[in-house]
Amino acid sequence: MSLEFNIQNETDSGGRRAQLVLPHQTVETPVFMPVGTLGTVKAVPQDTLESLGAQIILGNTYHLYLRPGHEPIRRMGGLHRFISWPRAMLTDSGGFQVFSLSALRKVTEEGVRFRSHLDGSSHFFTPEHSMDVQIALGADIAMAFDECTEYPADRTRAEESLRLTLAWARRSLDYHTAHRHEVLWHGEHDSPVPKCEGPGAPATCGGADGAGAPRGSWSAWSPSARDQGHPATCGGADGAGAPRGSWSAWSPSARDQGHPDGRTQSLFGIVQGGMYRDLRKESAERLVEMNFDGYAIGGLSVGEPRDLTLEMISEVLPLLPKDKPRYVMGVGYPDEIEQYARMGVDMMDCVLPTRAARHGLLFTSEGRLNIKGKRYAEDQGPADPACDCMVCQRYSRAYLRHLMHSGEALSATLNSIHNLAYYLGVMKRVRATCGGAATCGGADAR
Ligand SMILES: [Zn+2]
Asked: Residues 221, 177: one domain?
């Protein structure tokens, strides 16, 4: 089994609230996914991301493949373990960065030869290789290898690009289907596993040496559990009995769902087709025939006007299966992600909150705020008076401005924490207004 997608409520505008059950986390959707390019959401530690309520983060295949390399990560137990992130992850296919960052690309039917933007070394990516790298990284969701059509692209170019992306989608799916069981945590607990909860829980639920722990569970490979010993009761349904700070104590998957059971990595197809409605339609229909676990709309937010982005999303959404997650890649500003979520987009990611933060741009309930402004030099108020994030609760605009002006590392951290809190808060509000009888586009839904 790959994923479960349980829709809890749908609205007239097409928005839906759902639970996306992934091996490492049950994700409440619609969801915003912070981007952790190189195994880190820049400047923000993992425990802070958890405190902010991030349910799923991205890793970038291209970057991680070049440094530190997917094989070292595989040998260290996969990306979750390497970066100490117990919740859900998604990796992109590497395609977008190959086309946007690398030099001297040569695209053939077989794949893409490119030179690393780091050291000029030569590499060859094929759909099969992208799947192999993503299986090694071991995220909950992998993406089919695609060519992100540039903007603007004339019709002939967009048609050719789409033809390639569809062929690569087929090859990605075939290879992934044949090899997905190689994901390190695949199929854990296919055999009955003692549940570490309730009165009937076995006494040996992960000994000091990990013996007795279910194979592949967090407690089996968590250094903290291994090194510090493990109590007889390893985390009841409510986490009681687990040692504070241990994997099992704070892993939502262990706490909320028992341990992952027999689930494996999912693969999403990516709809391309440039800015041509009929090509987008063809792309969506062909991918749906292939039967992916979920569907993404790619090639947007690449320089086109915003109404065109909206038009393409509106065109594609009704063509995608209602009972599978829909993901729009690489968008957008806070008002955009809210708008798309209310149209029925379940997942979005964007570097904007963290990238803008490092440049001193804060998103607030009062609009965008450039913290570098001189008028904040002695402003004792929080970045956003309506925000309850840990930064706004503690630090003033004057201090944030001072950190920025002084080039202090803490500047990027604090600004990024606030911006992520704002983005995650937008999605939380959308979920709240999509949750019950209220409509997603209700009058009180800003
Ligand atoms: Zn804040």
From this structure: no
Q: If you measure from the C-alpha of residue 410 to the centroid of ligand 1, how many angstroms do you get, rounded to a whole number?
A: 15
Whether residues 42 and 180 share a domain: the answer is yes
Tell me how far the alpha carbon of residue 348 lies from the centroid of ligand 1, in angstroms: 21
| E-strand stretches of 198-344 | 266-271, 294-297, 326-328
d(C-alpha 178, C-alpha 344), whole Å: 31
The pair of three-digit structure tokens given for residue 406, joined into one six-digit string: 């002084």
**Residue ranges making up the domain that contains 196:** 192-259
Looking at 214, 245, 277, the residue that finishes a domain is 277
User: Mind listing the pLDDT tens digit of every residue in the chain (446 residues)?
Assistant: 789 999 999 999 999 999 999 999 999 999 999 999 999 999 999 999 999 999 999 999 999 999 999 999 999 999 999 999 999 999 999 988 888 887 778 999 999 999 998 999 999 999 999 999 999 999 999 999 999 899 999 999 999 999 999 999 999 999 999 999 999 998 764 433 333 333 433 333 333 333 333 333 443 344 333 333 333 332 333 333 333 334 433 343 433 333 446 689 999 999 999 999 999 999 999 999 999 999 999 999 999 999 999 999 999 999 999 999 999 999 999 999 999 999 999 999 999 999 999 999 999 999 999 999 999 999 999 999 999 999 999 999 999 999 999 999 999 999 999 999 999 999 999 999 986 544 454 434 33
**Active-site positions?**
92, 349
Distance from the alpha carbon of residue 46 to the mean position of ligand 1, in angstroms: 18
Number of domains observed in the structure of the chain: 3
Other residues' Cβ atoms within 10 Å of the Cβ of residue 108: 10
Same domain for 204 and 172, yes or no, is no
Give the pairing type, strands 367-370 and 361-364: antiparallel
- H helix and E strand count, the chain: 17, 16
Indicate whether 340 belongs to any domain.
no
Phi-psi label, residue 345: left if phi above 0, alpha if psi -120 to 50, beta otherwise: beta
Question: Cα(415) to centroid of ligand 1, in Å?
Answer: 8
Domain boundary among 231, 248, 277: 277
